[in-house]
Specification:
This protein is of the alpha/beta class. The protein has helices at residues 13-25, 35-55, 68-79, 101-110, 127-133, 156-165, 185-188, 212-217, 242-257, 260-278, 307-316, 330-333, 353-367; strands at 62-65, 88-92, 113-117, 138-144, 169-173, 192-196, 206-210, 283-285, 297-302, 322-324, 342-346. The structure holds pyridoxal-5'-phosphate.
């Protein structure tokens, strides 16, 4: 039973089949007159259209890349080409380091300042602290849409509103969020939004949105003869992983075929509540205590049972969960009270009520 969705999701057969088919039938380069080249172009156009539908943006404004971290390193450098020494970058304590390290390294190279937006007692983003830290020198507010460690969802429309008041960009790490909530980059008001398909039953492939005028304004790092249209293509240097793009389209088709993200989010909320309601008294959940404002990713400890031991014993009983110290969320780790490790349980749409009940009963046994 896979209860580690925040680490990586299981992939349906049709995604693997689409990848294999693309390798067999569409292995060529684009721009030629022969049939396989046309098929590759079709794969590319379809993947862009599918990503546009998934994110609610124009297919032109989609950027594919290796994964979230590589996209973040690349796009942060592209965005900042004309920034000045002393410009400021805000990251948040809820962030995964994949969304922080690119800015820290950039700041080290270019003389920018990085500051942290704090979290509240219940591990939500502290919007008052964001307001206090915003000024005219802030170029970007970078934060997760939801935490990979404790599951908190960030109020992105509000973050975007505040960032835009001082002329800063809202730069969103949506690796977890996009796997659990319907995405509407327009409604969220963000300028850049980056996700990773392997968290939502797809291949290992990053996908990003950039606001159209912003992408038009950036000078890309690309080989000069390579295509410049659509605008998103400028920021995908080199040959694209065509077979993974075919797998991406199959992933979106799969998610739509089982009801789409709206329905899946509602189902996951029910499952998450069932999990919270059934936890033994010995469990401490860090952060939000209900499903309000969170996805079904929970960080917890059982009294008297070290998390590493619990993960091992649960694995022996057939449950895939993970124990770790910081979850790559280094800013958040300083706020978490446990001495060593905690156990993360992350649910996704393919998990069932029976699995949750079985898992809860194992947790109760462990606690005895
Ligand atoms: C919130 C968050 N951001 C970024 C990443 C890194 O993503 P990627 O593996 O696509 O680089 C992860 C991976 O778990 C994550 O959970």
């Amino acid at each position: 039973m896979f209860l580690d969705a925040p680490g990586g999701s299981q992939v349906p057969d049709e995604v693997g089949d689409a990848i294999a088919r693309a390798l067999r039938e569409a292995s060529a380069n684009i721009g030629a007159n022969y049939e396989t080249s046309k098929r590759v172009e079709h794969v590319l156009a379809t993947a862009r259209a599918d990503a546009g539908r998934f994110l609610n943006c124009s297919p032109d404004d989609v950027i594919f890349g290796t994964n979230m971290t590589v996209l973040d390193f690349t796009l942060s450098r592209t965005a900042s080409r004309d920034w000045k020494e002393g410009d400021r970058i805000l990251v948040s304590r809820l962030d995964h380091d994949g969304g922080v390290a690119p800015w820290i390294e950039l700041a080290a190279d270019r003389g920018f300042e990085v500051d942290w937006i704090d979290v509240t007692q219940d591990l939500r983003l502290d919007l008052d602290d964001l307001e206090r830290k915003l000024d005219e020198r802030v170029r970007v507010v970078a934060c997760v849409a939801s935490s990979n460690a404790v599951g908190t969802i960030v109020d992105l429309p509000r973050v975007s509103e505040l960032a835009h008041e001082v002329g800063a960009l809202t730069w969103v790490d949506a690796v977890q969020y996009a796997a659990h909530e319907p995405v509407d980059v327009q409604a969220l008001g963000c300028d850049v939004f980056i996700a990773s398909a392997y968290k939502f039953c797809g291949p290992h492939l990053g996908v990003a949105y950039g606001r159209h005028e912003l992408l038009e304004s950036w000078r890309p790092y690309k080989a000069r003869p390579a295509q410049s249209e659509p605008v998103g293509r400028r920021f995908e240097p080199g040959t694209a992983p065509y077979e993974l793009l075919a797998g991406f389209s199959a992933t979106i088709a799969y998610l739509e075929s089982i009801g789409g993200m709206q329905a899946l989010a509602a189902y996951e909320r029910e499952l998450g509540q069932r999990f919270l309601d059934g936890l033994p008294n010995s469990a401490t959940v860090y952060g939000l205590q209900t499903m309000e404002g969170r996805i079904a990713t929970f960080l917890l400890n059982l009294e008297g049972v070290p998390a590493a031991d619990a993960a091992l014993r649960l694995a022996e009983r057939g449950y895939g969960v993970w124990a770790h110290d910081n979850w790559y969320s280094l800013g958040l780790r300083e706020k978490l009270p446990y001495p060593q490790d905690a156990l993360r349980v992350g649910l996704i749409h393919y998990n069932t009520a029976e699995e949750i009940d079985g898992f809860l009963s194992e947790l109760s046994h462990l606690s005895k």
